Amino acid sequence: MGVQVSCVQLEADCKSWDRLEMMEALQTQPGLPVTFDEHSKIIHLLERIESANEMISVERFINKDTKRIGDLSVPRLGKRSQKAFEDHDVLVKSIQECGKVVGAEFGMTTQQMVEDLLKCKTQRFSIALADPLGFDCPLVYVSRSFENLTEYPSEFCLGRSCRFLQPTVDIINDAVNLNERRRMRDFCGNAHDAGSTIVCLLLNERRSGIRFWNLLKMVYIKVSKKPYIVALQTHVDCYMPGTLRQRTADPKLNHDIVEVCRNLLDEVEKVRGRLSLKTEASLEELRTDAWTQLDKLQKLAPC
After folding, report:
1. How far is the C-alpha of 139 from the C-alpha of 78, rounded, in Å?
2. CATH assignment of the domain containing 109
3. What's the pLDDT tens digit per position in 244-269?
């Protein structure tokens, strides 16, 4: 029996990256020199990832009672917040407030945004609502596009902290996300006025183990004098080191990945610092800025 990795669902038609796909992900911008030694090092890491993944015993299903995903503790502690949100029919009012705050970012009226979200029509953006007064700041609403982006169904998400989206291996999560997690914890865990905003860039992990850059813009709103956090998020589809793209449970391998990516991760922190100052920018403007800055990091490739 190989290493146990929680919360990975493999569909029958789902396949892992093959060697060619992973090597394509490592290609640098034209004209940038890459030495043979560098390529050899990265190819070796990718081979070890492939080998480790072949040894994984996969847990195919998750449910509302799941309490751990890999190294993450994600108990469902917000059932009361979820029930209150549903019982008091604050969904429509909350989405109306969302529309007032962010509807203009997408060229939509408040009514159009409410209709799109309630009817699960929109794929233009992903949105979630959290209760900052509930234990562990639980999610009380996620849009259909949130489910599609993360591969987690709403039945699993609601009542839980959004922490389950972080990399499920501590050493990777700490190396890449530690400072952003501290900022988010302060924002979600302490009282803020309506309209207070934070911008974060996180390495997140889909249910299948594929990782992606997730750009978050979170805003406080009030509904019937109760605070909620609106989280707008979008996938920044740009450069990511090939060695970071896929979850692996091998401790030694994860340690080596962090070491080989250390210089690049220092640059990612600088990107985050610049984005954090742009709380007045729209999500689309932020996404474009993040894409441009992250894609420049290919000059530090491969890692």
Report:
1. 8
2. 3.30.450.20
3. 999 998 999 999 999 999 989 999 99
5 in a domain, yes or no? no
Tell me whether residue 220 is in a domain. yes
Query: Tens of pLDDT along 49-105?
Result: 666 554 443 344 466 677 888 888 888 878 888 887 776 667 777 777 776 666 666
Print the domain residue range for 108.
77-300
Q: Is the pTM of this model over 0.70?
A: yes
Question: How many domains are there within the chain?
Answer: 1
CA–CA gap between residue 19 and residue 233 (Å, rounded): 31
Coil, strand, or helix at residue 69? strand
- In a domain? residue 11: no
Per-residue tokens: 167: 């990399």
